[in-house]
Amino acid sequence: MVETELPGQGVVFWPVGTGDSTTIVLGDNLVMQVDLRDMKAADEEHAVVAAVIDRLEETLPRPDDETPYLAVFALTHADSDHCCGFGDLLESSILIGEIWATPRLWRELSEDKPMCEDAQRFQVEVERRVDATLKAVQDGKVPASGDRVRIIGYDEDRELHSYAELPDEYFTFPGDVITQIDGQDVEDRFEAFVHAPFKDHCAGDRNDTSLALQVQLKASDGTVGRLLFLGDLAYPIIKMIFENSEAAGNADRVEWDVLLSPHHCSKKAMYAQGEDGEEELKQDLLNLLQAHASPDARVIASSLPFREQDEKGNNPPHLLAREAYESITDYPVLCTGEYPSKEEPRPVVFALEPGLGLELVDITDLENKAQVLKAASGGQRLLAAMGTTHFPAAAFAAGTGLAHPRGTDAARAGVQQARGDKAEPAVQIGFGAA
Description:
Elements: E1 10-13, E2 22-27, E3 30-34, E4 36-37, H1 52-59, E5 69-74, H2 80-83, H3 86-91, E6 95-101, H4 104-110, H5 117-138, E7 148-152, E8 171-172, E9 177-178, E10 180-181, E11 184-185, E12 190-196, E13 212-218, E14 224-229, H6 235-247, E15 256-260, E16 271-273, E17 279-281, H7 283-291, E18 293-301, H8 319-326, E19 334-335, E20 348-353, E21 357-360, E22 362-364, H9 369-372, E23 382-383, E24 395-398, H10 407-418
């Protein structure tokens, strides 16, 4: 891969089928991963899903010139479509500075509930970090990068589990703001506001205990990009998040420029049983989402392509959900399994541009490295290009010198104009140093 720089700040939604893998770039060698789905299918000859761990190994910053460095890994909940491949991530060359986990993991172990192998690997690693942190505290030290852990959320049986002995600074609760990443103060460029899991749902279904965050990325000129992550939450809790935030004077904490649609664009986000027991659209939630969306708000469906029609019993993505989101935004939902095409999906990338906010980085084929390194606004290189396994990497560029259409139709047209859908690009562009 060609050596390029990380986007100054931004977010990458990887094509991983119906599951979540999101990479957030804070800048200054700090990168955060929210959930992971890295499947063996990524190694197949005609794969249409990303080998996320391979891409991260190739593209993460290497502050010591050797080790790929991931500052934070956050797991929203322990379903396999959110943690698939975590064991492989641990066995890779990547150093994970800090891990964010919810108490639900300990509850599931204590109740002997089944967890997939990668969820078990995650739990063992978190336990190791809890022990390492307790040892460091006992020795009057702070845990080293690679041993750090943050427990997010309440649980009524906290005193039964090992993490209960951690000092208060290693706990975070709904309503708290996180401005430290792997021991570094990043308030000038990053904030994560914790919305959930709520205490009242600690013993509920796994999806109902999902970690929910509003992430703010801040450019040097004060421009803010807002990302909303709601895990696999459904209508009742999502509505509670918005209503609680408004009631507490935190309405700004549910504002969003980019929304990762809950549960892979599931209709459960805005459909629920009515008084007659029949499923109905909950317009009140759509109104809340719309009221807090920016004018150019975009919704991401991290999923397989949409079917021709919804049928009872089908898993997400749901056309009903897509139609609902598109009724409150000016742009179509971007599906990772369809962007820019079902045959050759590419990561969906947004870059934080000073004065503009989070801008969708257009897919184009750039003919040479000089064109790739064209300066963007403010003199910053806001570049990201990551192809899926066995597919040529398409280029992502943001800058005043390049055309800036929006949407999948515009992206597909750019690719066709440059080379046609199936021809290989002249160069491959990397995300970080190869």
